[in-house]
Amino acid sequence: FGFGDLFGRRRGGPRRGSDLRYNLEISFEEAAFGTETHIQIPRAETCKECGGNGAAPGTQPTACPTCGGSGQMTFQQGFFSVARTCSRCRGTGRVVASECKTCHGEGQVAIERKLQIKIPPGVDTGSQLRITGEGEAGGLGGPPGDLYVVIRVEADQRGPRRAGRPPGRAHPRRRQDQDLGSGGRAARDHPPRPRPGLPPARQQAPRRSPRAPARGHPHPAQLRAEAPVRAAREDAARPRHQGQGQDALRPHEGHPGLRGRP
User: Fold this and answer.
1) DSSP per residue over 45-85, as a string?
2) Are residues 113 and 210 in the same domain?
3) What's the chain's average pLDDT?
4) Domain tally for the chain?
5) Using the 8-state DSSP alphabet, how is residue 140 labeled?
6) 236 falls within a domain
7) Which range, 132-136, 240-244, 245-249, has the best average confidence (pLDDT)?
8) What number of H helices and E strands is found in the chain?
9) Is the dihedral of CA 50, 56, 59, 62 positive or negative?
10) Could you list the residue range(s) of the whole structural domain that residue 192 is in?
11) Residue 211's pLDDT band (boundaries 50, 70, 90)?
């Protein structure tokens, strides 16, 4: 008598399958717009020859004579009783007289399963996608585990991106566009003279194709103003103190200045 009997399930009953993890690396464009891809995962699946019981066709497993079908062996040590897993049935509570030739009595076989997964737009490094029921098969008729796909986004060459933030880019901008404003492919134009390094209002990324079901995912962009090369050279060649000194204080011709006032 133990906790397994209180909850109506013994140690040798059905067991849930183990969860699996798959690391998937995608490009920056796929993370921003979403994509569909195929993956192959090695996992344990229920043997179709024996149905998962490990016995040869036409036979059935029997209760373990060592533990009496409980899957545990109880030992008395002084005032305490210690329960250990049965070494003969390995905790299943059943033994197979004639093993299945396909799975060799294990009830499961290792296979390579190909899955098609859909990655939503806007995922980032560390995002996890849970696929229910695609883990390893359960034991003795138990439910299968789940598959967790962990996303890793490749570094983008066109702009830095901080961890934990949605994918974005730093777009270079001409100086005249910085002062007067300009339009772009997105739905909203760039306003004139925004603060350097300040991302504008969130803009919907353009559709990947006319058949795309979604309108897009918020795709923040950071504007970076670029000074013209010619203007930078002229500023460097100009004297540093030009316009300063006594000549700067001299009044214009034909104007009496402050001292010439009556």
Assistant:
1) EE-TTTTTS-BPTT---EE-TTTTTSSEEEEEETTEEEEEE
2) no
3) 74
4) 3
5) T
6) no
7) 132-136
8) 5, 11
9) negative
10) 169-230
11) very low
Q: N- to C-terminal Cα distance for the chain? A: 117
Q: What is the CATH number of the domain that holds 85?
A: 2.10.230.10
Strand 147-153 to 128-131 pairing: antiparallel
For residues 145 and 30, membership in a common domain is answered with: yes
Residue partners of 212: CB distance under 8 A and separation at least 6: none
Alpha-carbon span 24 to 143, nearest angstrom: 25
pTM (global) more than 0.85: no
Q: Is residue 146 part of a domain?
A: yes
d(CA 50, CA 139): 13
Q: Are residues 68 and 113 in the same domain?
A: no
Is 88 found in the same domain as 76?
Answer: yes
Which of the given ranges, 8-12, 38-42, 201-205, has the highest pLDDT on average? 38-42
User: Rounded to an integer, what distance in angstroms lies between the CA atom of residue 97 and that of residue 106?
Assistant: 13
Whether residues 29 and 131 share a domain: the answer is: yes
Residue 190, both tokens: 């760039």
Strand order in the sheet with 147-153: 20-26, 147-153, 128-131
Flag whether 43 is in a domain: yes
